[in-house]
Write a structure and sequence with these properties.
Structural class: alpha/beta
Distance between the termini: 53 Å
Largest sheet: 8 strands, mixed
Strand content: 15-25%
Strand order of the largest sheet: 2-9-8-7-6-3-4-5
Order of helices and strands: HEHHEHEHEEHEHEEEHHHHEEEHEEEH
Number of helices: 13
Helix content: 25-40%
Shape: globular
Radius of gyration: 21 Å
């Protein structure tokens, strides 16, 4: 029989957050070994529960949630998103501009599918959240990565963005707060990005899924609030701020100058209709979440669990010889750098594999986030402080042995 091959469209698609190293971790778990997982922001797995009012509201409404909804979603949660946009100073948004999805991820893929022809280009940050690179490639487009500068607290390099724009560039993706670096962009930088988009008629795709997961009193500015003439798609949802990853409840907001984008919006509506609708129970959680007590504030306060774990992870990692970290201002991740003079890593996926095999700690290598050099890795600081000490202690032991093996 002839072999059945995967589509050629998948040739440049990868998602190493759930890649080969995770496959090895699953095998080890099946053999009875206990793995400390620092690879994914699956908040519930670390004992951090969603707000109880969301859970109870979904339970009460579940008997009436078996039917399809409007392809864009139920009116009440979409109206709640409109009100949230008003709180964020995003102007001109109506219920018709809001699309609910099975998490923000579905809507990101949908937005790129509706936009790109073969060979079209999208500007993406490096490092990035790899879904974007994969979705651009799967849509027939070409991902083009602009540099975020570690020496400048992982801020996007505006000049690098400008250099990489071509006649085929259609959009620029802005992940703020950033995954994997934890960077938070100031208004002045966002205005520079808007001006680039304005001059080159680019769509801005703004991922703001961590916009409430902010530390040290920092404030988030939605890039869509800073212009009314640049078409902007803003992605958000309940997964992170409301610790509800499995509910798959996200939204996309279309704002800015929409008159010249009616054909694109028609495409979005077509794709929204093709998937029928987002899951109804997840939709029912949105209004309650946005209108209720924002318990994320307790978690990110100086005495809150997430802030304490961030501070501890930063302290422990920066004590390791040859390891440096930009302290995250937001989100749930760190992106430490391993000094190549001390750690001569050539294949960072192999490095992550060896760490897993030797110390039973699972991280994601930096190249999994389309960072070109094999000198970074991402970890989540979601484990409680005791588990975090144990995990970073194991990483430190592995790195010490690595230095000895390489005579450093």
């Amino acid at each position: 029989m002839n072999p059945i091959s995967k589509s050629a469209k998948l040739a440049n698609v990868c998602y190493d957050i759930r890649g080969p190293v995770l496959d090895k971790a699953r095998q080890m778990e099946e053999e009875g070994q206990k793995i400390i997982k620092l690879n994914i922001g699956n908040i519930a797995a670390f004992g951090i529960a969603p707000p109880d009012e969301i859970v109870q509201d979904m339970i009460r409404n579940l008997p009436d949630a078996a039917g399809y909804t409007d392809s864009k979603g139920l009116f009440a949660p979409r109206k709640a998103v409109v009100h949230y946009c008003q709180e964020k100073n995003i102007r001109g948004v109506t219920v018709d501009d809001v699309y609910l999805g099975n998490g923000a991820s579905e809507l990101i893929v949908m937005a790129l599918n509706a936009l790109l022809d073969n060979g079209d280009e999208v500007l993406l940050p490096a490092p990035d959240y790899p879904l974007y690179t994969a979705a651009v490639a799967l849509s027939g487009g070409t991902p083009v990565h602009y540099i975020c500068d570690e020496q400048s607290d992982w801020m996007p390099d505006i000049e690098d963005i400008k250099r990489k724009i071509t006649p085929r560039t259609r959009a620029i993706v802005v992940i703020n707060p950033n995954n994997p670096t934890g960077a938070l962009y100031p208004e002045s930088l966002l205005l520079e990005i808007i001006e680039v988009a304005r001059q080159h008629q680019l769509i801005i795709m703004a991922d703001e899924i961590y916009d409430k997961t902010l530390f040290d009193g920092n404030v988030h500015t939605s890039i869509a609030s800073l212009s009314e003439d640049v078409l902007t798609l803003t992605f958000n949802g309940l997964s992170k701020n409301y610790r509800s990853c499995g509910y798959r409840a996200g939204w996309m907001v279309v704002s800015g100058e929409k008159r010249h984008a009616q054909d694109y919006i028609t495409g979005l509506n077509m794709l929204a209709s093709m998937r029928l609708c987002a899951n109804t129970p997840g939709q029912l959680a949105i209004q309650t979440a946005l209108g209720g007590y924002q318990s994320i504030k307790d978690l990110v306060a100086p005495s809150g669990r997430l802030c304490r774990q961030r501070d501890l992870a930063y302290e422990l990692l920066t004590q390791i010889p040859g390891v440096s970290v930009v302290k995250p201002k937001a989100a749930l991740y760190m992106f430490p750098r391993l000094d190549p003079k001390i750690y001569p890593i050539e294949d960072d996926q192999r490095f992550a594999y060896e760490l897993l095999a030797e110390e039973k700690v699972l991280i994601v290598q930096g190249t999994g986030f389309n960072w070109t050099a094999p000198d970074h890795f991402r970890l989540v600081f979601l484990p409680n402080t005791d588990d975090l000490r144990e995990a970073v202690g194991r990483i430190e032991r592995f790195l010490s042995n690595y230095r000895k093996r390489h005579g450093r």
